[in-house]
Every structure is written in structure tokens, then in C-alpha cells.
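Possible regression after last week's pipeline update?

I re-ran a chain I had predicted before the update to compare outputs. Posting the input and the new output here so someone can diff against the archived version. Not blocking, just want to make sure nothing changed silently.
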Amino acid sequence: MVYLIEVAEERFTTATFEELAMPLFDQLYNFAHWLAQDRTEAEDLVQETYAKALKGFSSFQPGTNFRAWMYRILRNTFLTSRTGLKASATVPLDSDDSPELPARPETPETILIENSQHQLLQTVIEALPLHFREVLLLCEVEEMSYQEIAETLSIPMGTVMSRLSRARKALRESLQQKLVRA
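New output (post-update):
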């Protein structure tokens, strides 16, 4: 499901902002949580994002993508936060992940395997460098188009495709390494 929110109105009001911004709350929180890897920090990031967006709403360009604008504010807020500076300065060399294996009916064993695979995937994604993790999450979790990701991150679309390809490769290699060790 892809959401493209374009605003064509000339006059912006607090009510207009609320109508546009509130449906994005859960998505923004989810992305903030993935970036910060901490619930409290994610809550603070989303709160600060909404405050900044409301304050700067008059500068929002009509006819452009509101969703991408909000994600850009969230990302920039994260990058200037203490957590964001720490995350962008460190590059983990190790990550884990494994694909889920379908099994029916569910048994305690299959539930355990599924949970461990989910945990492995989450660990591997969290270990990816920030610039790979954010592109991968925006594409695969938030289901943004390459164009929306480019607008959100203020990078060329070719860079989005390149980073996404490299992120997927790093994810695949990390998963293979973890599965071979298991």
C-alpha cells in the first residue's frame, strides 16, 4: 500500500496539518524506532518531528509529497540527535538474519523457530549501517517508491537504488553467514 499525499491548497491551517500529519503517526514512530533502536528515543523523535513540522508548516510547498516531507524532518531530527550522531559514526561489521520457514499446523517448535528467525532478521537489520538500514526500511517496511525515498533522504534516485541493492546484498550475506554458523 503506497500513500502519496500531495497538498494543493494555498492556505495552511493547524487543522490542515492535523488532517495530513496524524495518519502518518504510526508509520513515523515505526521508522523512528528502527532508526533509534530505543522506544523512548523514538517517542522523543516523533514528538520533535511533529513540533518542527507544525512550526515549519507554512514553508511546506503545495503540490509536493507531504509524507516524504515528514519523513525527511524525522530523519534530519534523528541525524542531529545524540543517538543519530552515534549511529552514523559507528559501522557494525556483523549482522544476523534468516528467512522464515512456513510450517502448518503451528507447534511449539515451529513458533520457536519463527520467533528466532524474526529476531535474527531484526538483529541483522539493526546491524546494517544507517544509510543502508534507512533505505531498506523505507522501501520494504514503509513501502515507499524510489522517488519518495529520494525526496525523503534528499539524495538522487540512483543513489537510492544503489544503496538498496547494497543493503539487500549485505543483509543476504549476513544471513548466510549466520545460518552457516547455526
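Follow-up from reviewer: compared with the archived run. The chain has nine helices and no strands. Marking as no regression found.
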